Amino acid sequence: MSLEWNPQGYARLQRRYQRQYGLALIDRTLPYRPSPVGTLLDMGCGNGVLTNDFFGRLLPRPHRVIGVDRDTGMIAAARKRFGRRAAFTWHCRSLTDWIAQDRSLYDLIFSNAVLHWLDTLAALRSVLQWTALHLSRDGLFAFRYSLIGNAEAARDFLESQLRVFLRARTLTLHRPVVSFAQSRAIMHDSGLDITNAEEITGNPFDDDEQHFQWMIYSQPLGRYLSKDQYASFCAFLRAAWEKTPVRVAGHHGVFIGRRLARR
Ligand SMILES: C[S@@+](CC[C@H](N)C(=O)[O-])C[C@H]1O[C@@H](n2cnc3c(N)ncnc32)[C@H](O)[C@@H]1O
Fold it and tell me: Are 84 and 16 in contact (CB under 8 A)?
């Protein structure tokens, strides 16, 4: 499994940014939830903080909560913090591997800020099709992910600085693969019926420092840099960014729904 994210740095950004969006998604999901939610799957659970937030807002509590994430460091953080909770199980697995082997049904399938990391449209389709087949009768899905156009200026800047730092001629950062309209169509084709959806665009941060932190903590820099290079790249990036402070424009989609009724 991979070690791409910086779990400590991510936790700092999560407190001020990602968790607020995650909690808003949970609040938006609650009115539609089946009752009770016996089983909850969090796809790309990261450090488990949001999985635990969801668990804490459900009464009665789910008896089975599964968090899946491919990043070794993120799953280690989840295990360290929530490993003693009897209902929770944390799996270090990519979603592609997970859907190839898991045959369970879930009352709730949740995912915050993950599905845009699937590398291809085909992979996204597979995850959505699997979701439609693995929701229980009244089961609900709730997804939030970045759309094409998300944070392009910040990603362009990060990509160009990585190229200079690594003296790499070609280095392309991963970008989201779908728009809001495409997402709706793909979900429908995959057997999912959207009940509530919104395209959310805007400036997610109140101060410039958060824009910089987004670049170093909300991107899996370990995919491009060795551990030894990480700290000096962050210093290098900061010097460049102080000359040209690039800001992140948030653009993501929220989708809540059930599986399509069989025709
Ligand atoms: C921005 S973090 C979000 C974490 C968590 N959902 C939250 O809201 O705090 C993205 C997470 O998705 C995970 N991820 C990305 N692609 C994945 C894949 N193909 N399979 C499993 N996990 C993946 C990363 O390892 C990372 O922990």
Answer: no
**CATH code at position 186:** 3.40.50.150
Split into its structural domains, the chain has a count of 1
**Domain around 129:** 7-150+175-204+249-259
- What is the distance between the alpha carbons of residues 93 and 22, in angstroms, rounded to a whole number? 21
Residue 69 CA, ligand 1 centroid: distance in Å? 6
**CA atoms of 40 and 47, how far apart (whole Å):** 16
Residue 81 lies in a domain: yes
Residue range 206-239, pLDDT digits in tens: 888 989 999 999 899 999 999 899 999 999 999 9
pLDDT more than 90, % of the chain: 79
Whole-prediction pTM: 0.94
Residue 190 C-alpha to ligand 1 middle, in angstroms? 22
